[in-house]
Amino acid sequence: MGDALRVALAGLGTVGGGVIRLLDANRDLITRRAGRPIEIVAVSARDRTKDRGVDLSRFEWVDDTAALASHPNADVVVELIGGSDGPALTLARTALDAGRGFVTANKAMLAHHGLELAQKAEASNAALKFEAAVAGGIPVIKGLREGAAANAIARVYGILNGTCNFILSKMEAEGRDFAEVLAEAQALGYAEADPSFDIDGVDAAHKLSILAAIAFGTQPAFGDVAIGGVRHVLAADIAQAASLGYRVRLVGVAEEGANGLFQRVHPHLVPLDHPLAHVTGSTNAVVAEGNFVGRLLFQGAGAGDGPTASAVVADLIDIARGEYGASFAMPAHELIPAPKADSGERRGRAYLRFTVQDKVGVLAEIAAAMRDAGVSIESLIQRGEAADGGVMIAIVTHEGPERSVEQALERLRGSQSLVGQPLLMHILG
Ligand SMILES: NC(=O)c1ccc[n+]([C@@H]2O[C@H](COP(=O)([O-])OP(=O)(O)OC[C@H]3O[C@@H](n4cnc5c(N)ncnc54)[C@H](OP(=O)(O)O)[C@@H]3O)[C@@H](O)[C@H]2O)c1
């Protein structure tokens, strides 16, 4: 049995507490699997007096979180604070510069600074691991980095935000509107007090940019992700989608095209025969399409103390075994900067919903805008009762260039016939 892997733990909230509980509960098994014990030696958070439901008296408490990076008795720093910059980034930089292993669940930091941190890890031959940063407990990074490493990946996509999926599933099951279900999700602890990162698609975009870098060997490019969220989806859209054979899901998609890397997070209509249509509640799922392995589906809990701690400790076990390679599946200098693909070049089908004034000629106006932009309509449904006194019109297009749909919407912008903004959802093909 080797010497213990000694861990300095920064952040003792949901995930940090979960890591302590997991290491306690599975201590013997983990020691046997890792070939050596994994022991927390020092911890840090903001408030020393807070009751966290775990016994912290056996660990050294360090007031200055940044000092964990150079703690004399630690081999690895685990960062579970969060935030793209601030104390998490300081800790990452100083730990990696000092040659310490670094484990984090912090997708925001990796999306913004992943390349720099991978370069630092390589320069000092230190481990940088972040399984928990994408899809919580699902070992999707390991799956892509290791299991699917022999494949060229054509596309990686999935449901990457449990809060949105919980809200959309509940809206669908209960026919309720977004704001009401969001309030309930907040009361149940499924959504943050400030839910904007989740519901506006930013959190999913952080994760998508990390997955894309691993899948395509490109530098993480969060700034190139086109981001749309779910706050404008109505219960009526979900009902309409259902009647057409679809479910509404917030899907992040990354794929390599002829003119660059395409990355988008947006509400999609997912056909009922697609596995993502059956991912409900706070579950996450990721699909990767490899040129030899075919379609892989990873599914499980995308958040929560237990699943996220499971991923953090799996990273620690890898480090304890000495089994860690390049963080993004290839050395940082091999990651290429991918140009951002022009989404207008893509072809696809779309769902468009308009709320319009109840007057003669509106339908003709919309149809003319579609025709002039070259959008071919597959089905058009007019319903009576929109919440704001208007009439709801939903359109499903035939496959065509996304640019044409954008042009049609542009033609209708400012039209006196429209009540509010139209909603566009892409149809997952
Ligand atoms: N929660 C999940 O299900 C989940 C899933 C996947 C990934 N993640 C990621 O995991 C990380 C941690 O999330 P969490 O949900 O565990 O967060 P959390 O419950 O809010 O815990 C954050 C911890 O960081 C500490 N902290 C905050 N600011 C600090 C500062 N300036 N200096 C030192 N410590 C500070 C807090 O200290 P006090 O307790 O003293 O206030 C708290 O212990 C984030 O990057 C998050 O994105 C979370």
UniProtKB/TrEMBL annotation:
Annotated ACT domain residues: 351-426
Record GO biological process: methionine biosynthetic process; threonine biosynthetic process
PROSITE patterns in alphabetical order: ACT (PS51671), HOMOSER_DHGENASE (PS01042)
CDD domains xref list: ACT_HSDH-Hom
Residues annotated as transmembrane: none
Residue numbers binding NADPH: 107
Pfam family, one: Homoserine_dh
InterPro entries in alphabetical order: ACT-like_dom_sf (IPR045865), ACT_dom (IPR002912), Asp/hSer_DH_NAD-bd (IPR005106), HDH (IPR016204), HDH_cat (IPR001342), HDH_CS (IPR019811), NAD(P)-bd_dom_sf (IPR036291)
Binding site for L-homoserine: 192
Pathways per UniProt: Amino-acid biosynthesis; L-threonine biosynthesis; L-threonine from L-aspartate: step 3/5; Amino-acid biosynthesis; L-methionine biosynthesis via de novo pathway; L-homoserine from L-aspartate: step 3/3
Keyword tags: Amino-acid biosynthesis, Methionine biosynthesis, NADP, Oxidoreductase, Threonine biosynthesis
UniProt GO molecular function: homoserine dehydrogenase activity; NADP binding
EC number(s) reported in the record: 1.1.1.3
Signal peptide: none
Broad class of enzyme this protein falls into: oxidoreductase
Binding site for NADP(+): 10-17
Catalytic residues, chain numbering: 207 (proton donor)
Domain of life: Bacteria
Family membership noted in the UniProt record: Belongs to the homoserine dehydrogenase family.
Designated name of the protein: Homoserine dehydrogenase
Organism: Sphingomonas paucimobilis NBRC 13935
The organism's taxonomic lineage, starting at the top: Bacteria, Pseudomonadati, Pseudomonadota, Alphaproteobacteria, Sphingomonadales
